[in-house]
Amino acid sequence: MNLYRVVFQNLYRRKGRTILLICGQAAGIAAAAALLIMLQAARLELGNQIDEFGANLVVVPRNEGLELSHGGTPISRLSIDLKQLTETDLLNIEQIPDRNSINIISPKMIAAVEANHQQVLLVGVIPAKEFLMKPWFAFAPTDDPEAGQRIVDPVHFELPDDALLAGAAAAEALAIQPGDTVPINGREFKVAGVFQRIGSTEDGLLYANLPVVQSLLGRPGELSMVELSAYCNACPIDQIAAQLTAALPNGRVTALGQAALMRGETIDRFALFAALLAGAALIAAALLVLTIMTASVNERTREIGIFRVLGFRRTHVMQIILMEAGIGGFLGGLTGCIAGNLIAVTAGFYLAGITTAAPWQPALILPAAFAAALLAAAAGIYPAVRAAKLDPVAALRFI
User: Fold this and answer.
1) ∠ Cα 122 123 126 (to 5°)
2) Which residues contact 91 (CB under 8 A, 6 or more apart)?
3) 3-state secondary structure of 249
4) Residue 285 to residue 293: CA distance in whole angstroms
5) Residue 364: which residues within 8 A CB-CB, separation 6 or more?
6) Quick one: which of 323, 322, 238, 251 has its CA closest to 85?
7) Whole-Å CA distances, 14 to 9, 24, 230, 389, 392
8) What's the whole-model pTM score?
9) Could you tell me the pLDDT band of residue 71, with boundaries at 50, 70 and 90?
C-alpha cells in the first residue's frame, strides 16, 4: 500500500481534525507574518520620523589651533588657520556616495548684529529647509505667547526679503511683535512673525533669508555652518560623516548620534516585542499540532495495529504521522501567510498605528509554508514515536 495514499485518505476521512490542524497552523503563521510585516513598516516609518526630527549632522568651518581647557571645560581656543565654508561646499555634499541617505541640507549664516540698540544673533536660513528640518517651530499669537500654530507647509513657506522672524526671547528683549519694524545694520526689517517659546537657545535668535543676511554682512556666498538631517535606515550615520569629512576639506563634521541611537533603541524594542509575540503564536500552533496528532494516534490504535500486521515497519508508521502533520502545516502556513499579509496591509493602521502602508510580501508565502510544515512535523515527532512503539498484538484487541 502506498504511504502517500494512506496519508491523503486519512486527511480526507478525518476532515474535522484536518481543518482544525490547518486552521491552528494558519492562525499562528498569520499572527507571526502580520507582526513581522508590520514591524518592517513600523521600522521604516519610525526611522523616517526620527531622522526628520532635527539635524543629526553638523558641518562648521575647520580651524587648526590649540584649545585650552581645565577639567574638561573649554576656556579658550587659539586659532591658527581658520577655514571658511562657502556655498560651493554644498555642491560637494551633493556628490558623496550616500547622498540619497541625506534628507535635508540646511545652510546658515550666523552673526551678531545690533537691533534696537541691542546685540542679538541674526541667522540667515533657507526657510523651506530650516523649518522642514525643525518642525517644532510655531508662530505664537500676541495674546498667548506660549501657544502657537505650526508652519503647516514648510516646503512652500516663503519669507519676504525685507522681513524677519523672531524667537520668543528675542522678541521680548527687543520689545517687538508682528508688524513692527526693526533696524538692523542700517536696514529696516518688518517682523513677519514671532515663534512660541520652545525653551532652547533658538528662542533668542532672529531669522531672515540667507542671501539677505549674507548681503547685509558683506559676506556673499559664505556660510557659518551647515546642518543636515540624514536618514539612518539604510546606512550608519558615521559612514555619512566620514564621506562628508573627505568631501569638505574646509569643514569639521560632527555626527550627533543621539537621534540615531534613540531610533535604534526604539526599533530594537519593537523588534523584540514583535519577536516574542510571533514566537508565542508559533509555540501555540505547535502545541495545537501536538495535541491533535496525539489524539489522532490514540483514536487510530486499531488502524496502526492492522498496518503493522500487514507488514508496515515502525518507520512507515512514523512517516505516515509526520507526513500528515507536515501536509497540514504546509497548507496552514500557506493560508496563514496570505492572511497575515492581508491583516498587515489592511489593518496595520488600526493594530499598530502605522500610517505608512505595510508592504505586501508575496515572497514570504512559500518560505512560511515550508517553515510551518517543518514546525508541524517537529511537533508531530512525539505522537509519531508513540504510534511506532505500539504493540501490534495489543492493538489488534480493538478489532
Assistant:
1) 145
2) none
3) coil
4) 12
5) 33, 37, 337, 341
6) 251
7) 8, 16, 58, 23, 22
8) 0.54
9) very low
